[in-house]
Amino acid sequence: MPLKNEGTRLGRRISTTVAGERVDAFLPPALPPVPPIDMGRLHSFHDAANRAIGQLNAMASILPDAPLFLYMYVRKEALLSSQIEGTQSSFSDLLLFEDNEVPGVPIDDVQEVSNYVAAMTHGLNRLKEGFPLSLRLIREIHGILLSGSRGSTKQPGEFRRSQNWIGGTRPGNAAFVPPPPEHVLDCMSDLEKFIHADTPEIPMLIKAGLVHVQFETIHPFLDGNGRLGRLLITLLLCDEGILTDPILYLSLFFKTHRRLYYDMLEVVREDGGWEKWLAFFLEGIAETSIQASNTAREIIDIFETDKTTIENLGRPAASALRVHQLIQRKPIIGVPAASAQLEISIPTIRKSIHHLIDLGVLREVTGKQRGQIFVYDKYLEILNIGTEPLPR
Q1: Structural domain containing residue 177
Q2: pLDDT in tens, 41-65
Q3: Are both 237 and 337 inside the same structural domain?
Q4: Which of 11, 142, 239, 377 is most exposed, with the fewest beta carbons within 10 Å of its own?
Q5: Do residues 216 and 350 share a domain?
Q6: 204 vs 330 pLDDT, higher one
Q7: Sign of the C-alpha dihedral computed for residues 92, 93, 99 and 102 taken in this order
């Protein structure tokens, strides 16, 4: 049975044997924390995060093409979250892969990122249909996350039936050993109850921060826990109406501050220091919301400026504007693909692309005469901020 919360925030160590080696696995107390969260220490952080999310929701409501922004933003989050786990994909690799072009990294890396997009989209669609954020949905999302990639042998969509660990080469020298497998279902059932519990004394942003750490501590799957745990934050906030659109993702914040992120998780597990973690988490919410708002403004400005420039072309403007609309969705494109998607002849597409090159909107990146690829540089530069793969 999971450890019920009987007045302590501290979990307990359970001695277990893995591959003939005795190790101490960690069993966390059920949520909510006891004693309760000291909101007095978090008011300023919580207010700042709430204000920033309000501004982000307001920005999303005036976007001229919100689905387009979401389309790209979801892909950026997928990339960042996968990079934290070690994939070496770039934004360009993902876009090339989705257009059936060959990326510059191993296909498995890009497949993992593409799976994340599919898993995220599935989760959000299920919530819109009224399906609850439940263990069943979490398993569904996990199954998509790991399908057809390196994780496909790690029981996609199933809670683990063997011991896992974090850091180190084996459980005996690991940085952290999650609960033994026989405790996973009980721990996750407790977490599901907390997600759906009526807890008016716990603001939703705080609740999301609690759920994220508890999920990462249980580590219920053999692979994909980090990616799914980060995705849970956005799913929770969308499900509760805190976010009007799924445009808040913390992976860039966690990637930038990854050492502190792991330290904060350890503070909760070792000392019950939830307030320290939550202050860090709320800072991340505020910072990330502001970044997303600023990014949206920059993108709108670029699109509007370039559209005005193209309109001054005269007769060629009509087809060039259609290409411009396409590269807002596909900022890396070739002539045949553009022709097929817009149903415009290849000669006309080629002329329009050359006009856009002359105006500084597009740039050819292969240096070849055949199979040329054109990039919407200014747009891609914004999307690429923070997406450099971590060193191996």
Answers
A1: 38-294
A2: 999 999 999 999 999 999 888 877 7
A3: no
A4: 377
A5: no
A6: 204
A7: positive
Centroid of chain to Cα 297: 21
3-state DSSP call for residue 220?
A: coil
**At 18, which helix (H) or strand (E)?**
strand 12-18
Of 297, 346, 302, which Cα lies nearest the Cα of 327? 302
Q: Which residues contact 315 (CB under 8 A, 6 or more apart)?
A: none
Q: Which of 252, 268, 294 is the last residue of a domain?
A: 294
Instruction: Give 301's contacts (C-beta < 8 A, 6+ positions apart).
Output: none
- The residue assigned the tokens 């690829």 is 373
Q: What is the CATH number of the domain that holds 107?
A: 1.10.3290.10
Number of domains present in the structure of the chain: 2
Domain match, 335 and 205 both: no
Q: Which two tokens stand for residue 185?
A: 């279902």
Per-residue pLDDT band at 152 (split at 50, 70, 90): low
Helix ranges restricted to H, 272-345: 274-311, 317-329, 335-342
The number of angstroms, rounded, from the C-alpha of 186 to the middle of its chain's C-alpha atoms is: 27
Contacts of 58 (CB under 8 A, 6+ apart): none
pLDDT of residue 62: 82
pLDDT higher than 90, residue 307: yes
What confidence tens digit (pLDDT) does each residue in 201-250 have?
999 999 999 999 999 999 999 999 999 999 999 999 999 999 988 888 89
